[in-house]
Amino acid sequence: MDASDRVAVWLGSVLSVGVGVWALGSLALPFGVVSGAVAALFGLAFGGLAVLAHAWGGWRKTALVGIAVSTLALLVAAAEVVYFVLAE
Fold first, then answer.
1. Where are the alpha helices (DSSP H) in 1-88?
2. What does the pLDDT look like over 16-32, one tens digit per residue?
3. pTM of the predicted model, to two decimals?
4. What is the rounded CA–CA span in Å between residue 65 and residue 80?
């Protein structure tokens, strides 16, 4: 494993969690559905890249947690859209 692979795993794992949490936080703001959903997609992408770069040990767990948080943010965004559509 090269140094660039280790950096890709570390960066992808950390960004996956960070962006996923930011996506969940932005969903609480008014009109944050779009930015939250886009951030969640980026969180999924970063986590996926970390897993594809053969993340190991704690970094793999971190990437999977980021993927889970980003998926939760996407589900919350979808629920908000359904709620706003049905409330009208």
1. 3-27, 33-52, 57-87
2. 999 999 999 999 998 88
3. 0.90
4. 22
